[in-house]
Amino acid sequence: MVPGDGLILLDAEGTIRWLDHWAIQLLPEASADWSGKPLTSRWPDLDQAVRQHAHRLKAGPLDLTLASPSGDSRAIRLFRTDSGIGIAVLRPEEQALSNHSLVQLFSDLFNSVQDALLITLAEPIDAPGPVIVYANRTLTQQTGYALHELLGRSPRLFQGPETDPDVAHRFGEELRQWRHCAMEVLNYSREGRPI
User: What is the share, in percent, of the chain residues with pLDDT greater than 90?
Assistant: First the structure.
């Protein structure tokens, strides 16, 4: 996903839990009232595709093209999240190509940094929680997770037995207030090594 692509989050039952303003812009028939509704009642073809391909998402994201509710052809990307399935509604290719070199520049820059970098959505902060949309190479090397295993997941994935729940709670409270925060949180690699 890149800025301008829409995002729809489903729970395990196929109910739409969240969609961002980009998804609403890309899908004229979409609106904020989609939240809380079954996907099948809003976009039956997508619901069928999710059910058909959900088992394949453990291997990484899956790109598909299908008709939107209004009949337009839409490129989408399915990926798993901690609470269900994520759906990226991709911008039309001609729009995406105009930002491709800038996105590649930022990706190259972030991957050249020796510090572990993780980017999540700024909202929703509560359930389903912030979801990871990017991790640089340093982070994947330090944690042992592949990028496709992190996309759509909550950063809580890195918490472990010695992670201080009070620090994590304070961090969440600061984010809810849209305040800058800097805290040290003990996280863990896939193998259980403290970071």
Answer: 28
